[in-house]
Amino acid sequence: MSLSGKKILIAVSGGIAAYKIHFLIRDFIKKGAEVQVIMTPDAEQFVTKLSISTLSKKPVYTDFYGDNGTWNSHVELALWADIMLVAPCTANTLSKMVHGMCDNLVIATYMSAKCPVFIAPAMDLDMYAHPSTKRNIELAESFGHVIIPAENGELASGLIGQGRMSEPETIAKAIEDFFNSDTKKTLEGKTVLITAGPTYEAIDPVRFIGNHSSGKMGFSLAEEASKRGAKVILISGPSSEKTDHKNIELHKVTSAKEMLEKVFEFYDKADIGIASAAVADYAPKEVAKEKIKKNDDHLTIELVKNPDILKTMGEKKTHQFLVGFALETQNEEENAKAKLEKKNLNMIVLNSLRDEGAGFKNETNKIKIFTPTEKKEFELKSKDEVAKDILDFVDTQLLK
Ligand code: PMT
């Protein structure tokens, strides 16, 4: 059983989604976990202690004070747990958690917990979109807590939008992944900004200049960084790659200029920047408003230089650890080392189109990594494995 012997403390707060907690408790117990439930006083309006204690096979606590003058120790509850899950987490409970407003058993237990904390928010769409909720979620993430984002759909108010608590299967998966992952959380608390994929530079409304990048390398890096505990901002050009990892925030862009703009929206927050995108170096000077007609035998398109996103990141670097890529076809090492220096990088990953199975489109890549003082060569591997090698190397550099 995948949760055998795990001690899961569930804190339920007062929202309609509380009814879903029954399914989750049953699932955790079936998988071998021990489940202890605590609730805010308002949660009792939505679910009963009896139904929950029947499923969890333990008494449910809602108050500091038990029967006959006993004391429900929040400290004992907190220290017992391997993980704490707050689900559903209302706007009120979230706000109390991040601001230390310790006026009930759930918050006192949360503040005494030393274990990882998972939060599954649930509220109406406008409350979820409110700047104060967004800030509170960011604060919770900055404490290292895992947010299991609310989903889109019909809400108790009858409105449709984002705010529904994640389905029990999604929450269970996040927790099982956590327990079953043997990946060390070396990037916990760090924000990693990754560029991926190609950029498309419009010629007219139907044509563009692009390249063969699929985005695979960048998405593999994003997945691996998030498995290591990082919050990932993934800025990708057009790509059919998908991700649904809760720690990856995907921003889709089309052109180099859009990618530059998006990168600098988040750059200050990033601890590590990784530029795996194949950015078009040039873009048409003018974009034709209408589809260009096939009149003459020749067509000349004037191109102008695109911004060099990574070079700008290097120039504006304050605390970031910067990783560039070099895609080369000749004088590979020399060119890669020149880019490392010119773009003010901490390390560069070289892939050469002369190596079979390396570079774009393939599921595989073959890389060499350079820092100003080191060089390391790797075999041909899947891009998922290459992402691990790159982040292992980053880990060792960050420890220096
Ligand atoms: O997407 P896949 O199909 O998986 O393929 C992966 C990949 C081959 C695209 C990837 O491994 C890779 O090599 N990416 C960098 C491609 C590239 O544009 O290399 P470059 O040597 O031209 O650029 C050097 C560095 O500057 C790169 O980090 C690039 O992202 C960055 N750059 C380049 C030009 C520009 N205008 N802005 C940039 O930020």
UniProtKB/TrEMBL annotation:
EC number: 4.1.1.36, 6.3.2.5
Sorted UniProt keywords: Decarboxylase, Flavoprotein, FMN, Ligase, Lyase, Magnesium, Metal-binding, Multifunctional enzyme
Region (Phosphopantothenoylcysteine decarboxylase): 1-191
SUPFAM superfamilies: CoaB-like, Homo-oligomeric flavin-containing Cys decarboxylases, HFCD
Classification via InterPro entries: CoaB-like_sf (IPR035929), CoaBC (IPR005252), DNA/pantothenate-metab_flavo_C (IPR007085), Flavin_trans-like (IPR036551), Flavoprotein (IPR003382)
Keyword Flavoprotein included in the entry's annotation: yes
Top-rank taxon, per record: Bacteria
GO BP term, example: coenzyme A biosynthetic process
Role, per record: Catalyzes two steps in the biosynthesis of coenzyme A. In the first step cysteine is conjugated to 4'-phosphopantothenate to form 4-phosphopantothenoylcysteine, in the latter compound is decarboxylated to form 4'-phosphopantotheine.
Record protein name field: Coenzyme A biosynthesis bifunctional protein CoaBC
